[in-house]
Amino acid sequence: MRALLASLLLLVSSFSYAQGFSESPRVQFGAANNTRFLPVEEAYQLEVEILDAQQVRLYWQIAEHYYLYQHRFAFTLRDSAGLTEEIDVEFPPALQHNDEYFGEVQVYYNSADVLLHTPPHTTGQSRRATLEVTSQGCADAGLCYPPQKQYFELDFTDGSVRSVTPPTRQAHNQQSTGDGGDIRTLLTMLALAFVGGTILNLMPCVFPILSLKVLGFARSTEHDRHLESWVYAAGVIASFVLVAAILITLQRTGSAIGWGFQLQSPGFVIALAYLFVAMGLSLSGLVQLGGSV
After folding, report:
1. What is the pTM of this model?
2. Residue 200: CB atoms within 10 Å
3. Superfamily of domain 40-174, CATH level 4
4. How far is CA 26 from CA 9, 61, 67, 147, 267, in A?
5. What are the CA-CA distances from residue 76 to residues 85, 153, 180, 208, 230 (Å)?
6. pLDDT tens readout for residues 66-76
7. C-alpha–C-alpha distance, residues 249 and 13, integer Å
8. What is the per-residue pLDDT across 240-279, written as a single tens digit (0 to 9) for each?
């Protein structure tokens, strides 16, 4: 009877998860596992061109099976003094798209050609400005990129355009040079990590583990306590370093992966469903996993 009930619960959970993923218009079964997503810079290649003193053209070359949201575009133009200038945006015709997250939206496939109209200026006057461009897109296979910000320095005098780093990063780099800013930043990050770890140890889910560790320390000698503490700390640090190294290696090979990225895989989510159902059956006493301790 218990085995039959367990089988029925596993079967129902499998069908419910499979049905949920099959109804999704954005994610196909196995797509997140089999598809190698492009880095955002390759999926959406932006070229900026100054047409004249009052017009700037932005042209996106969009990779196949990728698209950009029209309503997620944002443009900010700042003059050399840092003041924001008013600009008018002229969008090309877009395609209607039923999006899982935003509903009915306008999107661009293959390319997007946007025209910015800037305020008039005195002819012959030297004029430089910084353009901040925000965009966001997704892949048909199911991956949505976070909003991307790009910065360009525009020289309307000679028509030159060059990509620059965000102004905040430039200021931070200048402030950190020669005054020990990097060391202070590192110490601040370590202090915040220590505070965060202390807060996590106060979570209710950690209390049983802490009690087991305290009980283990009480039953061990002083030498064993010191040894176990160092081994425990080294294991935690080594585990996180290993996970970070794997993620960095995969990202450098061109894989669009990050922490929690695997939750976009239907197979991984279904495996988690089976795991939690099995744990629930074990905790409820319907089935027994493993032997007695």
Report:
1. 0.52
2. 10
3. Thiol:disulfide interchange protein DsbD, N-terminal domain (2.60.40.1250)
4. 28, 22, 13, 18, 15
5. 8, 12, 33, 52, 52
6. 999 999 999 99
7. 35
8. 899 888 878 877 775 556 666 667 677 888 888 888 888 8
